Structures are given as structure tokens and as C-alpha cells.
């Protein structure tokens, strides 16, 4: 069992930056691929970024590539999402997720409760 708790969301102006954190419980943190997803009002939940177990590889949605950076700290059991050059269309609830290897919404084994990010124009 893995429990995920996100933090760091808030209100930021367009062009600004924000860093989200997701603290994971459990000794099996290193066994999971960790991802961030987001869901805007009235829209489907969508993939944002993934970091592999060893942090050897990262993957990003085209919409955030070059602006967002995902990383993980195994010593702290935490995964981060650094967001810069934020746009109003980045406004959404951001979710941390853990999986055995899936990059899709349905492929995740555990989810956090989500943290709201609002970007004002």
C-alpha cells in the first residue's frame, strides 16, 4: 500500500513558477514509477509527466515540455513537479500517482488527493 499526499498548489500569475511536492509513505517507494496528472474543470484527467524508478528517464506531455520538470528524491520519498512559465491553461487540480509502469490514467495503482493550481492572466 502506498499513500500519496500532494502539496504546493496555489494561485500564481501567468509567467510565474510553482513547485508541487508529493510525499509517499511505504518502503516500496523506489518500486514505483511516479507521475503527475492534472484535471481542469469539465475536462478529462490528463498525463503531465513521469519519472522512472531509478530517475533515469523522464517523460512529458507536449503541452508542458520545456516548462515543467519532474524529479524524485528517494531519500525523502518525495516526487516534485517544478512548473515555470505558467499559463492560464495550466489551471487544474494536479494529482500525483504511482504505478508499476503505466503512463495512462487507468494504469495507475495509487493516487493522491490532488492540489489546486490556478494561473491568473
Description:
- With 121 residues, this protein is mainly β.
- Helix content is 0%, strand content 49%.
- It contains no helices and eleven strands.
- Strands 2, 4, 5, 6, 9, 10 and 11 form a seven-stranded mixed beta sheet that branches.
Explain the layout of strands and helices.
Blueprint (H helix, E strand, L loop, with lengths): L3 E4 L2 E4 L4 E7 L8 E7 L6 E6 L6 E3 L7 E6 L4 E6 L8 E8 L10 E2 L3 E6 L1
Parallel strand pairs: 2-11
Antiparallel strand pairs: 1-3, 3-8, 4-5, 4-9, 5-6, 7-8, 9-10, 9-11
Poorly predicted runs are none
Q: Give the averaged pLDDT, no decimals.
A: 94
Let me know the number of strands: 11
Instruction: Name the shape in a single word.
Output: globular
Total number of helices: 0
How much beta, percentage-wise? over 45%
Distance between the termini: 40 Å
Question: What is the helix fraction of residues, given as a range?
Answer: under 10%
User: Which structural class do the helices and strands define?
Assistant: mainly beta
Main sheet properties: 7 strands, mixed
Radius of gyration, rounded? 13 Å
Following the backbone from N to C, one meets helices and strands in this order, namely EEEEEEEEEEE
Amino acid at each position: 500500500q502506498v499513500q500519496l499526499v500532494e502539496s504546493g498548489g496555489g494561485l500564481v500569475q501567468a509567467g510565474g513558477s510553482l513547485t508541487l511536492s508529493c510525499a509517499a509513505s511505504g518502503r516500496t517507494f523506489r518500486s514505483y514509477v511516479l507521475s503527475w496528472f492534472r484535471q481542469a474543470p469539465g475536462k478529462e484527467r490528463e498525463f503531465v509527466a513521469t519519472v522512472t524508478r531509478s530517475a533515469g528517464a523522464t517523460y512529458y506531455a507536449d503541452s508542458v515540455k520545456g516548462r515543467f520538470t519532474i524529479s524524485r528524491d528517494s531519500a525523502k520519498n518525495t516526487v516534485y513537479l517544478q512548473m515555470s512559465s505558467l499559463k492560464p491553461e495550466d489551471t487544474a487540480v494536479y494529482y500525483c500517482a504511482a504505478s508499476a509502469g503505466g503512463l495512462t490514467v487507468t494504469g495507475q495503482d495509487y493516487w493522491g488527493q490532488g492540489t489546486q493550481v490556478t494561473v491568473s492572466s
